[in-house]
Amino acid sequence: MPLPLAPLIFIVLPLLEIAGFVIVGSKIGVLATIGLVIASSVLGAILLRIQGFGILTRLRQTMDRGGEPGRELVHGFMVMLAGLLLFLPGFLTDVVGLILFLPPVRDAAWRFLKRRLHVVDISGFGRGTRSSRVIDLDEDDFTRDNDETQRRPSIDHDTRF
Question: pLDDT of 63-117, one tens digit each?
Fold first, then answer.
């Protein structure tokens, strides 16, 4: 039975990040290390915004053309993951996050995942279950009041429907 990776990641990754802080802090100083961590978080937010809007635009264009949006969805997920990794404090996660922001790396990951993923189109979900008849009512034809003293016509009391 294989060892689950999640506990290993939650134990090893923080230890590696702490070691990275100690090494970088001993070389450039504590304030510069803190500045780098803050700068990487700001950079992650900026890159996430810029590349995220670009991916949303390409996703919309692909959908408008009737194409399969799998590539753009995977790229969008990887950009979100990259932004999250840059936002987390630590130099190891920053390096992985910056690498994920590179389009050639995302394309390589897409080529790897394309054979293993299948995108299902659910845009037609629920079609055909509703009647195509539309009832257009004026303001005087419908009321939500439960007061029976008003004698305005209501859709509930109209025998035609």
Answer: 888 877 778 888 888 988 998 888 888 899 999 998 998 889 988 988 888 887 7
What pTM did the predictor assign? 0.63
Q: Which amino acid is present at 159? A: T
Backbone φ, ψ for residue 102 (5° rounding)? -80, 125
For residue range 5-27, list pLDDT tens digits in order.
Answer: 778 788 888 899 999 999 999 99
The CA R_g of the chain, rounded to the nearest whole Å, is 27
Query: Distance between CA atoms of 39 and 37, rounded to whole angstroms?
Result: 5
For residue 14, how many other CB atoms are within 10 A of its CB?
A: 12
Distances (CA, A) of 157 to 63, 77, 114, 136, 145: 44, 51, 56, 16, 13
- CB-based contacts of 85, cutoff 8 Å, min separation 6: 44, 93, 94, 96, 97, 100
Distance CA(96)–CA(44), nearest Å, equals 12
**Do 142 and 155 contact (CB within 8 A), yes or no?**
yes
- Cβ-proximal residues to 96 (8 Å cutoff; 6+ apart), any chain: 82, 85
In the three-class reduction of DSSP (H, G, I as helix; E, B as strand; rest coil), residue 38 is classed as: helix
